């Protein structure tokens, strides 16, 4: 005995008296279909237990309903929040996510992109590796017509939408806060050269100093700081061992701020009484250090959320709707989160 045939969009169309194409678009949440029609379609689909045939749909549309994500490192708290933002959007839109990490290596990034292409991903979300100076491997996938959205680090020389935080403003706010507390010798632990976040945060630091007529002391800037806490601890130990050591330190990221805090404790320097510290990113652990660390909030979840929305919008753009809109750069605002590593004005010792 044959079982009952599964419900189809044709069944829905007949009951509602509309075309199958309208049903299909309604089920895909197409903006051209009214909310009222979508509600009717979904109500009828639920009534007859209609289950979308995603495999057949992907074959017809030549889509895999899969997004490829390339990030520098999975272990960082910031990237875990970015991934959460991406996956929430992907799940809502019916997409799967394949995640890869480059470990900041150019060759590994190339390999990851090749692997994702072999898995027929519909588009890429990429945070370019620190070592990737030659971006021809990304240019290649764009020439194939595969959409790419960059996030976290601005990429010049390539087309594509980008989602970043306002690194310049975040650094400016952090440095300006330290100046307003009365500090004049403010050091900056700057990131690896060649990265947009390094340059933007360094420029924000410098601009805040210049606006308050403090001048820029290059001896107070240490370049090439990464996310290795032990390495930063050694760098900060040397900086804080100087005769004219800084009164405050703005670190390019939170691991560098933690390394600075550890170095201060090694030297018996009290934080915040004798040294103020501000990091960048608002990693989860900054709330639990002793003292807790002031930082600049970098909204990772929002970055991932916005980047995924832009990518899926481009993937699903119907060729009949015309050419893609000009490249968009979404800049999310940064804000200060003040904790115990920066003193209250009445408790300062300068």
Q: What does this 3D model show about the protein?
A:
The chain has 350 residues and is an alpha/beta fold. It has three domains: 44 residues, no CATH class; 131 residues, Rossmann fold (3-Layer(aba) Sandwich); 144 residues, Response regulator (Rossmann fold, 3-Layer(aba) Sandwich), CATH 3.40.50.2300. It has twelve helices and twelve strands. Strands 2-1-3-4-5-11 form a six-stranded parallel β-sheet, with helices on both faces. Helix 7 links the parallel strand 3 and strand 4. Helix 5 packs parallel to helix 12, helix 8 packs parallel to helix 9 and helix 10 crosses helix 11. The N and C termini lie far apart (88 Å). The mean pLDDT is 87.
Topology of helices and strands:
Elements: H1 9-16, H2 20-27, H3 35-47, H4 54-61, E1 66-71, H5 77-93, E2 96-101, H6 106-118, E3 123-126, H7 136-143, E4 148-151, E5 161-165, H8 167-180, E6 186-189, H9 196-211, E7 221-222, H10 229-240, E8 248-251, H11 254-266, E9 276-278, E10 295-297, H12 300-315, E11 329-332, E12 335-337
Parallel strand pairs: 1-2, 1-3, 3-4, 4-5, 5-11, 6-7, 6-8, 8-9
Antiparallel strand pairs: 10-12
Helix pairs in contact: 1-2, 1-3, 5-12, 8-9, 10-11
CATH superfamily of the largest domain: Response regulator
**Oligomerization status of the protein chains:** single chain
Mean pLDDT: 87
Distance separating the two termini: 88 Å
Helix content: 40-55%
Overall tally of structural domains:
3
Strand count, sense and barrel status of the largest sheet are: 6 strands, parallel
How many β-strands, per DSSP?
A: 12
Ranges where pLDDT stays below 50 over 5 or more residues in a row are: none
